[in-house]
Amino acid sequence: MAGTKALSEPQKALRKLGLGRDIDLALHIPLRYEDETRIVKLRDAREGDTAQIEATVTDCQVQYRPRRQLVVTVDDGTDTCVLRFFSFYPSQQKALTAGVRLRIRGELKGGFAGWHMVHPTYRPAGGELPEALTPVYPTVAVLPQAYLRKAVAGGLERADLAETVPPDAPPAPGKATAWSLRQALQFLHHPTPEVSLAALEDRSHPAWLRLKAEELLAQQLSQAESRREHDALQAPPLKARKGGLHEQFLAALPFQLTGAQQRVSGEIAASLARGRPMQRLLQGDVGSGKTIVAALAAAIAIDSGWQCALMAPTEILAEQHFRKLVGWLEPLLSPKGLRVAWLTGSQRKKERGEMQQLVASGEAALVVGTHAVIQEQVQFRKLGLAVIDEQHRFGVEQRLALRGKTPEGGEPHMLMMSATPIPRTLAMSYYADLDVSTIDELPPGRTPVVTKLIADSRRDEVVERIRGQLAEGRQVYWVCPLIEESETLDLTNATATHEQLGAALPGVLVGLLHSRMPVAEKKAVMALFTGGQMGVLVSTTVIEVGVDVPNASLMVIEHAERFGLSQLHQLRGRVGRGAAASACVLLYSTGDAGRLGETARARLKAMAETNDGFEIARRDLEIRGPGEFLGARQSGAPLLRFADLATDADLLEWARAVAPLMLDRHPGLAARHVARWLGGKSEYLKA
Ligand code: ADP
Ligand code: MG
After folding, report:
1. Phi, then psi, of 40 in degrees rounded to 5
2. Which of 163, 175, 311, 377 would suit a FRET pair with 299, their CA atoms being 20 to 30 Å apart?
3. Strand (E) or helix (H) holding 217
4. Do domains 245-439 and 449-610 have the same CATH topology?
5. Which 3 state secondary structure label does DSSP give 623?
6. 567: alpha, beta or left, given left = phi > 0 and alpha = psi -120 to 50?
7. Burial (CB count <10 Å: 0-12, 13-18, 19+), residue 280
């Protein structure tokens, strides 16, 4: 570009590190600090200290054993110290002659055997001592520490750090707002030597708290903004009609709703009745009975003359929903001339055309299917409510596509269901525009699943267990992680296991289900298992979500160490759905290493210790951190750099309270605050 000087290597590196703006530099916080404020006497030093001494060279020579090195002896008047350099220039050797006085910094080793330092840094003695600790920044090879220090100091000097937290905001916890942002940053870059390094390290120092409070506030502001935008949208008010479908369905329910199901149904009904689009997450552990709650919501939409769409991530799950909903609702719908339609990718063209016709005409009051439901060709007459099962499997774009299905510029209400609960702090920070309803109670008569960890070498015992369950008329799942022998991963494949089990269990129908099978075949296998003719179902993780076969009482997961925690929990939830005592066996293999990795061990331990989906989610967050927990598809939102949801819940609460106040009373400050922290990134948050 004309008039622009080519960027130097370090400048390019700064850009790459995301340090383009002054504020970015100011927010580039040191990794650690070096204390160059004091000169230590060797007599007072301790083994292992990183110390700065001033001493005179008494000897300098090159040694060749055990390897070539420059050996310099220095004396600070209290003791001597040997400096060793394994790589050095001839000029260095010349400069370090006897009599030269140096200021030397390095890690002291030796003690009684005589002090020594390997590759210390040094410069001529004398000169002023700095008053603050010296920052050491995270950097890359082409960006020297000295260059970066200067750049950061410049950025810190120039950046606009004027206060944006309004004076009428409540004080933040831990004296966070007793420090101004400028003071806090100044301190974090150049702390005074008396500071508690522990408080800097664990980020509990008030300067750190201030920084984290600012960051969380930016996040809450942008979340509150997107929530306000969302609240300005229109949606049809949906209400149950007297004597209508909702009422009839409630009267005909096959069982008594649990208290939790009643409560969340009430929450959903209240949101649907408002003229603003509901965006609600219905979370409840596997088997807690979310489907019926969704069906009740659908009935409300239909009562108001609107259509409802229900999407599931896999065809098997969608079909299971379809059958259930047809069973529950079609007897009530057909007298009204309404139907339940079925849409999926594997459908024949003709059938799909017919179904699309039903959807377009409005004759299909309810549409169930896979993501085929949101394809462009599918035109709804009046989509009022979209239900998405196992929402964590869906990307943001798919949810947006569904929104576009309502005519007249309105938005459908959305109900997302998930068995993977979002911990509260995470929900507050990344899903602020989402209402959450929680089913925290299982239907009566369930017995908790007993979980056993068993080494793969004891497979025979597991087969014995399977025999026992089959003898009692129960059924068994066996889950494998991969479907084909892979050259790099030594995984037992599902096909081999299928054959083994078939041979070990003569007279028992052992089925195989994997994701690459044709859909018709999958359905046939599933039907045999659901119908009870098939004793054992070997499968890859296709059964992970939603499948409901109450007679299944044993779940075996092979190579359990390779599964994620929430996946394991979901799989375990496939059993324990009836009254029979159920078990989950986690078969693990330690591989060549002979022992499990740390995170694999933590996951299996969590599984063995708790059945509670919320506790599992909390541990998962702990093991993986929010970035991975949210998953790339879930979070357009930039993750937190400084705050930690696990330890900073109180600061998060503060930010959540301040954000709306700031938007109402100080919109200018709010805009500046968001720009400072999120720059161009805030658009992401609007998904
Ligand atoms: P999930 O929340 O995992 O989607 P489902 O909706 O599949 O759970 O329900 C699990 C099983 O519990 C189903 O067989 C369902 O019919 C049954 N169920 C749901 N609610 C109740 C209830 N209140 N009482 C008895 N059984 C129930
Ligand atoms: Mg379900």
Report:
1. -100, 145
2. 377
3. helix 206-231
4. yes
5. helix
6. alpha
7. buried
Alpha-carbon distances of 636 from 430, 630, 632, rounded to whole Å: 9, 10, 7
**Domain range annotation of the chain:** 38-124, 245-439, 449-610
Fold topology of 449-610: Rossmann fold (3.40.50)
Element of type H or E holding 32:
strand 32-34
What 3-state class would DSSP assign to 348? coil
Residue 321 CA to ligand 2 centre (angstroms): 8
pLDDT in tens, 442-471: 888 777 899 999 998 899 999 999 999 999
Domain 38-124 has CATH 2.40.50.140: yes
Q: Which of 341, 347, 346, 344 is nearest to 361 (CA)?
A: 341
pLDDT in tens, 548-581: 788 999 999 998 998 888 888 888 988 887 778 8
- Phi, psi values for residue 63, rounded to 5°: -105, 155
Going from the Cα of 315 to the center of ligand 1, the distance in angstroms, rounded, reads: 19
Enumerate residues with CB within 5 Å of ligand 2 (an ion): 546
Ligand 1 — pocket residues by CB below 6 A? Answer: 255-258, 261, 284, 286-292, 419, 443, 546, 548, 550, 577
Cis omega before residue 66 (within 30°)? Answer: yes
CATH-assigned architecture of domain 245-439: 3-Layer(aba) Sandwich (3.40)
